[in-house]
Amino acid sequence: MHVQEWLETIPAVSIYALVGLVIGLESLGIPLPGEIILVSAALLASQHGEINPFVLGACASAGAIIGDSIGYAIGRKGGRPLLAWLGGKFPRHFGEGHIATAERSFEKWGMWAVFFGRFVALLRIFAGPLAGVLRMPYWKFLIANVLGGIVWAGGTTAVIYYLGIVAESWLKRFSWLGLVLAVLFGLTSMLVLKRKSKAAARKAEVETVGAME
Description:
Elements: H1 3-8, H2 12-27, H3 34-47, H4 53-89, H5 91-94, H6 96-109, H7 111-117, H8 121-133, H9 138-212
Helix pairs in contact: 2-3, 2-4, 3-9, 4-8, 4-9, 6-7, 6-8, 6-9, 7-8, 7-9
């Protein structure tokens, strides 16, 4: 079966549930590709009319808010031993350097770290549990969590959805050549961003080790 035909057989409700679940699990502290899932679903919505972008954005927002809230409760109850346990289970995401970077962000920005953390892959995983560990007042956390979840999930869905519609129209004009160029551009951008992210993480770890010495 053709890939596009296969995608059309997936019920829209299953896509909504998958997006909400993955983003929710990522937000409570499990390193999952929530942003990739959301972007993929928004692109799919731009090509398939049965997927409502407003419902998709609402499900993503709900997953983000609920997941962060659960993460906050777990972090508040588990405390720093929880971070040590997570570091042992997920050293690439919860290493000492990553935790130190996140803590500095919280100390400097407070509740804004929760809001803007929604837009940063590292802080998106840390925000809920770390806010609980650091005993941030829940009302501050809740305000930043709700606003950040809605702006991030709704904004990402809207932008990718409309870009997908524009891209489809553009690619139809240039056929396979345009498609190949678009894919190459996307892969190159992804590799560059991934390399910069790794470099930033290594720099943070070096700074943390230097401060400890």
